[in-house]
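so my prof wants the structure for this chain in the tokens format not the other one, which i didnt know existed until like an hour ago. anyway here's the sequence
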Amino acid sequence: MDSPRSSLKAVSDAYAHAACGLLTTTTDGTIVRVNATFCRWAGYTPDELLHQRRVQDLLTVGGKVFHQTHWAPLLAIQRSVAEVKLDVRHRDGRKVPMLINAARYRHEGVDYDDFAFIVVNDRHKYEEELVLARKRAEQALAAQKLAEEALRLADRRKDEFLATLAHEIRNPLAPLRTVIEVFRRKQFTDPQVVWSRDVLERQIGQIARLVDDLLEVSRIAEGKLEIRARAVDLASVIRQAVETSRAVIDASSHTLEISLPDAPLVLTADPTRLSQVVQNLLNNAAKYTPAGGSIWLDVKREDGDAVIRVRDTGIGIAAEHLPSIFEIFSQLSPGLPRSQGGLGIGLSLVKALVERHGGTVTVHSAGTGKGSEFTVRLPVEGPLSADDDASIRQVDAPHRDLRILIIDDDEDTAASLAMLLELDGHSTKTASDGVTGLALLDEFEPDTVILDIGLPGLDGYEVAARIRARASRSRVTLIALTGWAQQRDKESALLAGFDFHLTKPLDYEQLMGILARPAP
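here's what i got, hopefully its the right format
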């Protein structure tokens, strides 16, 4: 789809190089708009005509008389004059016979006259002008199509680059996050070791969020932001978001005060996306508040809406920056020294996600150094029904010791995940390629296969298809664990026979939820 700017330019080019001379005047004849065709025929530059001359000044004596006695009165009465032949005085003094059509129109309470001129004395010259104008229009159209195709190609390559970059970053993050989970299951008494583990966890989480934000840029621009709405209790979403942002808040020694409503606030929303909204607002408050500051998170029902307010004692926002605060890549210069990194994407994501949920987000600040307050308003549904409540309750499933086969060409990823699973009581085997993994399938008889997509030789899709083709393995749970995280990657995984698609670095709690499901 053409942008408004490119569409306006195309219209402007068509006017300037039209096959006939075009100009617009006020009712007294003062020229306020003129195209290049008329200027060429009359021998003037636009600057010599615009607001400098009246249309009657360009006519011969006879033409001026006709204008005064017939032309102007007719325009005033019937608001149009058709096919009047008059001589236009060329700048060099010669006469140029032209056929003239005129119409009067009103715009914003002011009357204007539009004129169209066609040279009639030199048919051959006119036809040449017409052919030239047509060629110019065709060339402009061809150039526009080439430019549009170049933009589409650049946009596609940008998306491919971002997806590849995200994949390449996620791969080394996967074993790092898994090792952190292993550390969490060990008892450390040395406070420096505990501190180092927490630092690693926070920074790995920050890198993972930056990767996700990079991909969201394309989704926002293309209107492909995915929303999976269902009935959710807002309080449960808030608790999840706070838990995720707690490390960032605690790292700067901030205090966080939370106020939640006594009664459930039920929304039709995507809980993951809604949690992302609150996380970004909390992270933003933590990043732009000096150490030891205060953050308030308040949730209540107001006028039929669920209202989420995040307030802080941070650096505040100057009045001139408030209108652009939700623009993509927007970061406030005074805040950069205190910021803990970021791409300037977070608040634009908040706005896009809130609006996709039918809500609004606003910001208020008394000025620099006086803190900020972000307010999100979302429509509220009715009381929580029994069926809806079941979708948001935590279910404690009994633990099952499983045989789990991990197929991943990154040995660190496979080994660290196997170690973590074995600490939780599962039996594991690992393979670094699809052929070896298929050979282990009959020997090990796994309940679950965790399978990378980008394998050497047979890729993960082909391995999954071969596993599903074996009747004895039709009930094995197949989990894709990959750095490829776009919607088309998830759809491809499901089509290949996977039951679940997980993104690196692994959310271990999400994996535990899958493994705790009853056997098929």
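also thought this was worth mentioning. The first strand starts at residue 21 and ends at 26.
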